[in-house]
């Protein structure tokens, strides 16, 4: 993991351990990502930190259930979003990309870097942040 990303994590996460993974998504001009929760990790006490690069997008953020109201946020190149605490398991997605809003990528589009912990930092039965036994992932990536 590049030192710049671990430094950003350390500064923003408020979490003792370092990120264990960086998911990289590319969004073309017409790309979307439906509402989903990031539930594939075993550590829910650590935030998920998202870094936007390239074209702006309309990001949608809801609550912990699909039926809760959502709000839209425009994310531009260089914006960083942390989903932690009560928002860690919030449903979220990308409604649209705004082509031509950044010159970062020669062909246009958006790259999203998502830093996350994967394993529990304090193993043991009944650890805070563990999904219920048999929980299914809602992640649609």
Polypeptide structure, described:
- The chain contains one helix and eight strands.
- It is mainly β.
- The chain has a four-stranded antiparallel sheet with strand order 1-8-3-6, with helices on one face. The chain has a four-stranded antiparallel sheet with strand order 2-7-4-5, with no helix packed on it.
- It is globular and about 45 Å long.
The structural domain count equals 1
**How many strands in all?**
8
Strand content: 25-35%
Number of helical elements = 1
CATH class: Mainly Beta
CATH superfamily: Alpha-ketoglutarate-dependent dioxygenase AlkB-like
Structural key phrases:
141 residues; mainly beta; 4-stranded antiparallel β-sheet; 1 helix; 8 strands; disordered C terminus
How would you summarize the topology of this molecule?
Layout: H1 3-13, E1 21-27, E2 33-36, E3 48-54, E4 56-61, E5 71-75, E6 80-83, E7 92-98, E8 110-116
Antiparallel strand pairs: 1-8, 2-7, 3-6, 3-8, 4-5, 4-7
Could you give a short description of this structure?
This protein is 8% helix and 33% strand. The protein has one helix spanning 3-13; strands at 21-27, 33-36, 48-54, 56-61, 71-75, 80-83, 92-98, 110-116. The strands form two sheets. Strands 1-8-3-6 form a four-stranded antiparallel β-sheet, covered by helices on one side.
